[in-house]
Amino acid sequence: xxxxxxxxxxxxxxxxAKSSGSAANDSLxxxxxxxxxxxxxxGVDLTLKPENRNTLITFSQDSLYRVFNNNTLIFECRYTxxxxxxDGETIKVLNIKRPEFxxxxxxxxxxxxxxxxxxxxxxxxxxxxxxEE
Length: 133
What we know:
Blueprint: H1 2-20, E1 30-39, E2 44-47, E3 55-59, E4 64-69, E5 72-86, E6 89-97, E7 102-110, E8 113-118, E9 125-131
Signal peptide: 1-23
Protein name: Lipocalin-like domain-containing protein
Keywords: Signal
């Protein structure tokens, strides 16, 4: 009886431990801190030191996109999320709707890391962001 009770307790404890971990959030809504950028004509690959991670982007539920640098709002505009076919696969696209132009980015969101690659600018910088807590 004690052995059965011990087994049940261990099983319940293991089940609770597995379910208490937070699931990865695949929502774009929230704040994202830039940690790295790559690309450009020179082929730059720069991982920013924590003290230099001054660029923050936010996405709201009502489709408002904001960019901050050193906690100062640089600009805001609307965004949409769509999908497109590219090279035989379906990709997620983040559309930043600036008044002057539409910037389309291939968007990969995995384990609270956001990776953006401009689709229509060949020598542009690719950006990496982590979700702010």
